[in-house]
Amino acid sequence: MNPLLSHLQPYPFERLRQLFAGVVPPAAYSPISLGMGEPRHPTPQFIKDALSNNLSGLASYPATAGELGLREAFTRWLNLRYAITLDPATQVLPVNGSREALFSFAQTIIDPSKGQPLVVCPNPFYQIYEGAALLAGAAPYYAASDPARNFAVNWDAVPDSVWQRTQLLFVCSPGNPTGAVMPLTEWKKLFELSDQYGFVIASDECYSEIYFRDEPPLGGLQAADKLGRSDYKNLISFTSLSKRSNVPGMRSGFVAGDAALIKAFLLYRTYHGSAMSPIVQAASIAAWGDEQHVVENRTRYRKKFAQVTPLLAGVMEVALPDAGFYLWAKVPEQLAMDDAEFARALLAQYNVTVLPGSYLAREAQGSNPGAQRVRMALVAETEECAEAALRIVQFIQSRTA
To answer: Which domain of life does the protein's organism represent (predicted)?
Structure first.
């Protein structure tokens, strides 16, 4: 067996199952889960039709690079969304969802023969970053977010000795779980560090189309273009249809950026066997070519968060995020319980599931920045999320009265 497998930590939802062992939720309350970030709005009918109308694609082996029409759909969308122009032949690739791409990209980039490589990732973070680093033969370094700065990552706290060993940096903007969006000044800092130390930046942007401000979140490629880096040196962005179009089961997304990195990633993926089905390619072209359903989806989230956030803000520290579909709430101090105890007691008393924030972070530099927080995924319909919020309010009030 690969000895590196032993370094992997249990996934947050496995830890959640262990935490809930022995809990019998009250039958008087229907179960409501705010734990998993799985989009639950209906899949648009035109995407379903595109899938069912292209079943002849089952008879063909797909090309790893995807059909030219698919790659052109990516570049058209990038131009529409970010006002940037990329070459569909050399600067984009289809992937089977951002998760598999983030993992396999690390296997492409990391050179374990160059003494003790590091992969820097935000903390809290999406656990795939950590697993990708470990199985590529690198060690993760956790850069903590700062609650005083809307949970922006404190890159200035990363020492030069770490940057010197860094081969890959994972960023997530809008962030999971905090919803923080990186401004242009932060991108400028990271590009300068990349130029100085030679590491690659992997920009996870799967939540980019769910936002609550008038201005859409800045993307990594967009930031590079604004700063005169139109070759996108050492930068790859990752995006997906899962959240944007409510098709997590379709496993469809793309990567874009530095042509040299795309070429290397294509070589890896050719051997890895990760080509996208022709049926999914056809449906993806349809999805990337339509913005109306995205606007409607975003409107639903905005209305939902506008209703739920004030309810919870009355009893705990929580605020509307910049983007994404999570609330990152602080466990009230007067409850005298940690985030895991909060989640277990809430399930036991009101049959509502939330994810302990400490499960989404690591103890680093003397603290776990997810401790005493819980992540709530507002992915269900508004009525169900509002009911969950009311139960959480009742739970907190019952223990602080």
So the answer is: Bacteria
